[in-house]
From TrEMBL:
Species lineage: Eukaryota, Metazoa, Chordata, Craniata, Vertebrata
Gene3D superfamilies reported for this sequence: 1.20.1280.50, Galactose-binding domain-like (2.60.120.260)
Record keyword Chloroplast present: no
Domain F-box, chain residue ranges per copy: 30-71
Matches recorded under InterPro entries: F-box-assoc_dom, F-box-like_dom_sf, F-box_dom, F-box_only, Galactose-bd-like_sf
Keyword Transport among record annotations: no
GO molecular-function term, one example from the UniProt record: ubiquitin protein ligase activity
GO biological process: one example: SCF-dependent proteasomal ubiquitin-dependent protein catabolic process
Pfam families in UniProt: F-box-like, FBA
Protein name: FBA domain-containing protein
Length: 273
C-alpha cells in the first residue's frame, strides 16, 4: 500500500477508504447495503455490461440473486403464484422487462398491415369496429371472415426480436399464445388456429393445432379466449409461425364468419403466467 505525507501525519489509501483493485485504479470502499442500493438505481443493462466488469466484488454483487430479487420486488415483477419462486431471479427480471406482444397489429388498428393473407375466400377478409364489447376495453377493432376459409399469418423472427439463439437454446423460456374470437349471434361460424415453433430452416419443432371451434346459429356471440403455453420444447427454436382465421358455416354473402382480435405471442418467465 502506498503512503502519502500530509503535514506531519501519514495517510494510506486503506485508511482513507480506498483500495487499489487489480491495479485498475482507486475504488471507494462502501458498505454492501449502500453499494446494493446504488446498483438498484442503475439501468439493468449497465449493471451487466459495465458495473459487473469493474472488479470481483462488483461482479459478485451483480450476479447475486439477492440484488435481482430486490429489483423485481421494487419494480413490481412478481410471480403470479407466490408459492413458486423463480430459480434464477436475474433471468426472471430480464424476461419480465423484455416481455411484450410479438404479434404486430393484433387489434386491426392498422387494417391488415403486418399480416400475410394465406386464404381469402368468399367476400375476403374484412375489418370493422367491435360491436360486442371486448373484456379488454382497449380493443376497439377486429378482423372478420367470410363464407369460405379466411386465414392470415405472421412469422416472428425471434433473433430480430431480441431473443438470441443461445438464449433460446439454453433457457427455453415459456412461449405463451393467446387469441380472442367471437361468432355473430345470427350465423354459425368456425374458428381455427395453428401456432408452430420452427427451426432455422423453418421446419416444425412443435405445433399447437387444436380442433376447429364450431358455433351454432343463434348463439350468445360472447368473446372466447384460446390459450396455449409451449414449454420444454428443446433447442433450435428460431421462428414462431402464427396462423388463425375461420369462416361462416352457412355460406352467407358478406362477413358473417368468425371475428378475431387481440392475438398475442409472448416470451415469459416459466413461473409467471
Amino acid at each position: 500500500i502506498k503512503t502519502a505525507k500530509m503535514g506531519s501525519s501519514q495517510t494510506t489509501h486503506e485508511d482513507s477508504g480506498y483500495v487499489n483493485e487489480n491495479s485498475t485504479g482507486l475504488l471507494p470502499v462502501l458498505p454492501l447495503e449502500v453499494l446494493e442500493e446504488m446498483f438498484l438505481n442503475v439501468p439493468p443493462h449497465q449493471l451487466v455490461c459495465v458495473c459487473r466488469l469493474v472488479c470481483r466484488e462488483w461482479k459478485q454483487l451483480v450476479d447475486s440473486d439477492s440484488l435481482w430479487r430486490k429489483r423485481c420486488r421494487r419494480e413490481g415483477y412478481l410471480p403470479c403464484d407466490a408459492a413458486t419462486l423463480p430459480k434464477d431471479w436475474h433471468l426472471f427480471y430480464f424476461l419480465c422487462i423484455k416481455r411484450r406482444n410479438l404479434i404486430k397489429n393484433p387489434k386491426a388498428e392498422d387494417k391488415f398491415n403486418d399480416w400475410q393473407i394465406i386464404a381469402n375466400g368468399g367476400d375476403k377478409w374484412g375489418e370493422e369496429p367491435v360491436r360486442e364489447p371486448h373484456p379488454d376495453t382497449t380493443v376497439q377493432r377486429l378482423f372478420l371472415t367470410s363464407l369460405s376459409p379466411c386465414l392470415k399469418l405472421q412469422l416472428i423472427h425471434l433473433e430480430k426480436e431480441g431473443y438470441s439463439p443461445s438464449f433460446m437454446d439454453e433457457f427455453q423460456p415459456d412461449i405463451v399464445i393467446s387469441d380472442w374470437y367471437a361468432p355473430r349471434w345470427d350465423c354459425g361460424s368456425q374458428y381455427e388456429i395453428c401456432v408452430e415453433l420452427l427451426n432455422h430452416k423453418k421446419k416444425t419443432i412443435e405445433k399447437f393445432n387444436p380442433a376447429p371451434v364450431i358455433f351454432e346459429q343463434w348463439n350468445d356471440q360472447k368473446w372466447n379466449q384460446m390459450t396455449h403455453v409451449f414449454k420444454n420444447y428443446g433447442p433450435g427454436v428460431r421462428y414462431i409461425r402464427f396462423v388463425h382465421g375461420g369462416k361462416d358455416t352457412q355460406f352467407w354473402a358478406g362477413w358473417y364468419g368468425i371475428r378475431v382480435t387481440n392475438s398475442s405471442v409472448e416470451i415469459c418467465p416459466s413461473v409467471d403466467r
